[in-house]
Write a structure and sequence with these properties.
Layout: E1 3-6, H1 12-21, E2 27-32, E3 44-47, H2 53-60, E4 65-68, H3 76-89, E5 94-98, H4 110-125, E6 129-134, H5 145-151, E7 153-156, H6 168-180, E8 188-191, H7 199-210, E9 215-218, H8 221-228, H9 234-248, H10 258-263, H11 270-276, H12 278-282
Parallel strand pairs: 1-2, 1-4, 2-3, 4-5, 5-6, 6-8, 7-9
The structure holds NADP nicotinamide-adenine-dinucleotide phosphate (NAP).
The site of NADP nicotinamide-adenine-dinucleotide phosphate (NAP) has 24 residues, from α1.
């Protein structure tokens, strides 16, 4: 039976991939960075750090396909390149690489440059792969949940710009399809929600789902950075500001049909996301 390695198994998209693979006719191996108990949806677990080449080799033994995600740290590209080298050496037939919508080597957004570097390396050196380029995650809004519970509102430097934010569950299902069906090698898919939404629209969806008014305020980049200071390292705050400037310029508003095509159902929208996560915002 086809064996699929899922990296980032304790994370947002890795967890969604595991969930989407459950019930499919494959053996699922979850990769964990640290010691952990059984992972829901996994048949096997393996412990490996992206910085430990020997552990990666062991994790990739007898693997037919893999889902690759790393946190968006300054070392993301280095870690992903190491994983791609190890996968190629292990004879893995396909790696589904989690990238980001609009990845480009000349982007002013560092995360988009790092993702583009990985995409280019995979194109030039292999292994055979599929690129998944999601837009902003709707689940990213959960980072504001504490603030919304405490103050009834949240802010971001995005103005009235619309973003076709995607539900992480759809990323998981799209990845599961490309890893378990034919015809996806060498392909690249933009993964978006069904429409581009403003943060004001997001706040309205949260208000309707929670039964309490949730306000959104456009805030200057400096105050947004100040809110995050201490909670995140400086480079990550700077990267997020670049991301938000990119959203504000309207560069992440395009809607793709890849999610419905890969999953067989319409992409989940902001109202469904808000309904399914209302408790987190209600407290
Ligand atoms: N957030 C967005 O809106 C957005 C949009 C588009 C693209 N993206 C891309 O999505 C990616 C992040 O995906 P995600 O949200 O699924 O990540 P995540 O929830 O932060 O999960 C990261 C996973 O990687 C594991 N990990 C961390 N360091 C590791 C290491 N050294 N070795 C092995 N495993 C390690 C973590 O394990 P532990 O639990 O043990 O730490 C965790 O399972 C980034 O590349 C980002 O650029 C994000």
């Amino acid at each position: 039976m086809r064996r699929i390695l899922v990296t980032g198994a304790s994370g947002a998209t890795g967890g969604a991939v595991l969930q989407a693979l459950a019930g499919r006719d494959v053996t699922v191996r979850a990769m964990l960075r640290t010691e952990g108990g059984p992972v829901p949806g996994a048949d096997e677990t393996v412990r490996a750090d992206f910085d430990d080449p020997a552990a990666l080799d062991a994790a990739l033994a007898d693997v037919d396909a893999a889902y690759l995600v790393t946190p968006s740290s300054a070392r993301a590209a280095e870690r992903q390149l190491r994983f791609l080298d190890a996968a190629r050496a292990a004879g893995v037939g396909q790696v589904a690489i989690l990238s980001q919508l609009a990845a480009a080597t000349d982007s002013p957004v560092r995360f988009l440059r790092w993702h583009a570097q990985v995409e280019r390396y995979a194109a030039e050196h292999g292994p055979a792969h599929t690129i998944l380029r999601p837009n902003l995650f709707l689940q990213g809004t959960l980072a504001f949940a504490g603030l919304i519970r405490a103050t009834g509102g949240f802010g971001a430097p995005i103005g009235d710009a619309a973003v076709s934010a995607v539900d992480v569950r759809d990323i998981g299902e799209a990845a599961a399809t490309v890893l378990t069906t034919d015809g996806h090698l060498g392909r690249r898919y933009d993964l978006t929600g069904p429409e581009a939404i403003t943060h004001t629209r997001l706040a309205a969806a949260l208000s309707a789902a929670t039964g309490r008014e949730v306000r959104f305020a456009d805030v200057p980049p400096e105050s947004f950075a100040e809110q995050l200071r201490g909670a995140l390292p400086d480079w990550q705050i700077e990267g997020l500001l670049e991301d938000y400037a990119h959203y504000r310029r309207g560069e992440a508003a395009g809607v793709s049909t890849a999610v419905p095509e890969l999953t067989g159902h319409p992409a989940r929208g902001v109202d469904e996301f808000a309904r399914d996560h209302a408790d987190a915002f209600r407290g």
